[in-house]
Design a protein that fits this description.
The complex is a heterodimer.
Chain A lengths: L4 E3 L2 E5 L4 E6 L6 E7 L6 E6 L5 E4 L2 E5 L5 E6 L8 E9 L2 E4 L3 E6 L1
Parallel strand pairs in A: 2-11
Antiparallel strand pairs in A: 1-3, 3-8, 4-5, 4-9, 6-7, 7-8, 9-10, 9-11
Chain B lengths: L4 E3 L2 E4 L5 E6 L6 E7 L6 E7 L2 E5 L6 E5 L5 E5 L8 E8 L7 E2 L3 E5 L1
The chains are: A mainly beta, B mainly beta.
């Protein structure tokens, strides 16, 4: 069973601060996705990373895939209240998508 | 752009009843996944289908079954419902060879 550990599990910071969320596994992924989920809604895909060492930027969000393709990080710059939500990483092995344990982020205005 | 459609959005059933959840994937997507998400938990993989055949199986109870039809829509059938089955059930679809999965808005099942 492939396990994805996310840290921190909960994070509450002030608007304007920076933060980093981590996603780690002992297994090598074929690809990794980051999703954001609002309460009662389905996860929304933010980004997919495929290549070891890959860095992708989405406005204030920076995603990095580890060189060994076992870990990933999400960095948010100048966090805004609209960034509040549950952030999930998900690793692909074949046709199965396995989710991480999630990071519940709260941005305080 | 068309998204993944799930129905119903909300469902209330009594213990020991049956329920059927439906999922209509994004057009031309050939792979469907089902996930269960309990309160405060991350989504747990139940089962997936590719080209109408079961492709992978996760923590799906024996009381549940699913299938994918010729038009690629999928149905999750749940029997002998238990209180613990109350959860959000998500369907996602993807295109084989592509790593991204796109999720529907989910069906909230409440068993009373």
């Amino acid at each position: 069973t492939q396990l994805l550990e996310q840290s921190p599990q909960f994070l509450s910071i002030q608007e304007g601060e920076n933060l980093t969320v981590y996603c780690n596994s002992s297994s090598v992924f074929s690809s990794l996705q980051w999703y954001r989920q609002e309460p009662g809604e389905g996860p929304v895909l933010l980004v997919t990373v495929v290549t070891g060492g890959e860095v992708k930027k989405l406005k204030r969000l920076t995603f990095q895939f580890g060189d060994a393709r076992k870990d990933s990080s999400l960095h948010i710059t100048a966090a805004q209240p609209g960034d509040t939500g549950l952030y999930l990483c998900a690793g692909s092995w074949g046709e199965k998508l396995t989710f991480g344990t999630g990071t519940r982020l709260t941005i305080i205005p | 752009a068309a998204g993944v459609i799930q129905s119903p959005r909300h469902l209330i059933k009594e213990k020991r009843e049956t329920a059927t959840l439906k999922c209509y994937p994004i057009p031309r997507h050939d792979t469907v996944y089902w996930y269960q998400q309990g309160p405060g938990q991350d989504p747990q993989f139940l089962i997936s289908f590719y080209e109408k055949m079961q492709s992978d199986k996760g923590s799906i109870p024996d009381r549940f079954s699913a299938q994918q039809f010729s038009d690629y829509h999928s149905e999750l059938n749940m029997s002998s419902l238990e209180l613990g089955d109350s959860a959000l059930y998500f369907c996602a679809s993807s295109l084989v060879g592509k790593t991204e999965a796109f999720f529907g808005q989910g069906t909230r099942l409440t068993v009373v």
